């Protein structure tokens, strides 16, 4: 049986040593904001659309920089689908606000690492090692 791959992009926004995370409605886990591509969208197109949909801000395309790509099984365990998360830094315009898809926004430190899925934890590890996440 072929394994399932969930291909996602995520926006890495760090302020004051904390990273922005979002909890979708109906979920009990926080994620790095972003989501899955639609059709033949590029990473950039997906990122711009998803962040506007989730957080009501516009990312500034010329500031988008790849932060890393991570793979891990979804939080359901080793039999869960594999998640690939391509992460990007970017500046934005507007005021961050949870859209109708998002229940809650939070700024997480490295100590909050257990509250995010395994693929997000890999990003947390790299950001902490680089001194970006406290």
Task: Please outline what is shown here.
This is DNA mismatch repair protein MutT. The protein has 134 residues and is α+β, with helices and mostly antiparallel strands. The chain is 19% helix and 36% strand.
User: What is the H/E string?
Assistant: EEEEHEEEEEH
The largest sheet is:
4 strands, mixed
Distance between the termini: 41 Å
Mean pLDDT, to the nearest integer, reads 95
CATH topology: Nucleoside Triphosphate Pyrophosphohydrolase
Q: Please give the CATH architecture.
A: Alpha-Beta Complex
Topology:
Blueprint (H helix, E strand, L loop, with lengths): L4 E8 L1 E2 L2 E7 L9 E3 L6 H13 L2 E2 L5 E9 L8 E8 L2 E2 L8 E7 L9 H12 L5
Please describe what this structure looks like.
By secondary structure, the protein is α+β, with helices and mostly antiparallel strands. The chain has one domain (5-129): Nucleoside Triphosphate Pyrophosphohydrolase (Alpha-Beta Complex), CATH 3.90.79.10. It is 19% helix and 36% strand. It has two helices and nine strands. The chain has helices at residues 43-55, 118-129, and strands at residues 5-12, 14-15, 18-24, 34-36, 58-59, 65-73, 82-89, 92-93, 102-108. The protein has a four-stranded mixed beta sheet. The longest helix is centred in the middle third of the chain and has 13 residues, at 43-55. The radius of gyration is 14 Å and the shape is globular. The protein starts with a strand and ends in a 5-residue tail after the last helix. This is DNA mismatch repair protein MutT. Keywords: Hydrolase. Residues 1-129 form the Nudix hydrolase domain. GO terms for molecular function: hydrolase activity.
